[in-house]
Amino acid sequence: MSLFAIALLATAPATGDAAEPIVVTGTPVTREEARKRAAQFVRRAGVAQLQPVARWTMPVCPRTVGLDDNVAAIVDNRIRAVAASTGAKVAPAGCAANIVVVFTADGNGLARAILKKSPDLLAEMSPVARARILDGDGPIRWWYNTRVETRHGMPVSNGMTRQYNSSIVSTQVVRALQSATVIVDVEKAEGTPLEAVASHAAMVALAELSSNPPPPEGSIMGLFDGESGRRELSDSDTALLRGIYEIPPDREAFQHRRQLVSTVRKEQQGEE
Description:
The chain is of the alpha/beta class. It is built from 7 helices and 7 strands. The relative contact order is 0.18.
């Protein structure tokens, strides 16, 4: 692809000399390159890689603990705002929490204590992901509990996880989030603005995203991995979450992944 140039006239100097053009050069991003970048973003977010996307089918109800009530409300409100803006249903005040964000001085110790009390909470995780939760050194970690439902919200019994209608398009089943737990190690996150941490928590609480490194480039998920100046979700983050809540939930992983890559690519290229 040939380079393009945009010439901008500089302010004329006081001596009256002719203004010198400032030439800015760059390489336009092709559609294929944009698709590759979007695919990498979706892959690093860890969504729809082996299984269809798991998202909230019930209204979300966040609760933050370990902070003063007024400060905790900032985190809860941020999660509610992101949920509402991306298409997730939001429960009214006084609801039973299904998203819990815990601020603690010992993230590893708390994760191990939770596992000891409720071993099944990490049952869905691979050994590598489980080790990252229990022994990782990152400032933030998270996990989910999911279930398989019919498209009408009824639980699916064993042996009924794949049903197809006559069009062979719908799987007839949906992977739904039942709970999300986010642990923030305040010692390791020290110096990071609360609004940035709240945005990170909101991002990972609203859909089944992976904590496998490295995080996507240009994402709030990279807050502690090169995106320290970010305070809110990026446009790509928002596009990904909106895409997750727009796609038909009863599809295979490759169909979800393909549609999400298309959604993120359009956002990155400024398409409607």
